[in-house]
Specification:
Number of strands: 11
CATH topology of the largest domain: Rieske Iron-sulfur Protein
Largest sheet: 4 strands, antiparallel
CATH architecture of the largest domain: 3-layer Sandwich
Radius of gyration: 30 Å
Shape: rod-shaped
Strand order of the largest sheet: 2-3-4-9
Strand content: 25-35%
Helix content: 10-25%
Order of helices and strands: HHEEEEEEEEEEE
Distance between the termini: 97 Å
Structural class: alpha+beta
Length: 176
């Protein structure tokens, strides 16, 4: 007759963790599995310090259009009747625009000025250029209209957030 020795689960666990524990194959495999599971869970977690997967941080909850957070503050002051100066009107060409610290200012038609957030609505990169009547984000090749900030091609589905601006003397200012 064969002598079969059985151990309870508590006795087996004590052998892996208690004083004088032995290195059995079961103990080593259980330990390796626990380390692997911890590594997988750590890789799937987020640290909460960054919000953009492509390396540049952006504000997932930008200030509303027309708020005091908008505008580049090129001169930092009020030019009289309007709000904060964004850019000199002479710098904004018809059919084109200028990218400032926070805004893209365009002049789609003579004397009509528009301003949009420079944060792309696709994944939060900043738009990088204006060409051929398009505001362009090169991160993922999203294109937006200089007329209304609407996406014209690329992965972006939402328009750029608009900030109301107006001409005040020789400057484009945030509308009051």
């Amino acid at each position: 007759m064969t002598d079969v020795q059985t151990r309870t689960e508590a006795e087996t666990e004590h052998r892996c963790t208690g004083a004088g524990a032995t290195s059995t194959r079961r103990c080593i495999l259980v330990g390796a599995g626990a380390i692997g599971a911890t590594a997988v869970l750590a890789a799937c977690g987020t640290d909460g310090t960054g919000t953009n997967p492509n390396g540049t941080d952006f504000d997932a909850d930008p200030a509303p259009a027309g708020s005091t957070a908008a505008g580049s503050g090129d001169s930092g002051g009020d030019s009289g009747g309007g709000g904060e100066v964004v850019v000199a009107a002479a710098d904004v060409k018809v059919g084109g625009g200028v990218i400032t610290d926070k805004l893209v200012v365009t002049q789609p038609t003579e004397g009509t000025y528009k301003a949009f957030s420079k944060v792309c609505t696709h994944q939060g990169c900043e738009v990088s250029e204006i060409a051929d009547g398009q505001i362009i984000c090169r991160c993922h090749n999203s294109f937006f209209s200089v007329k209304d900030g609407a996406p014209t091609s690329g992965p972006a589905q939402q328009p750029l957030a608009e900030t109301k601006v107006e001409l005040d003397g020789d400057n484009i200012v945030v509308a009051a």
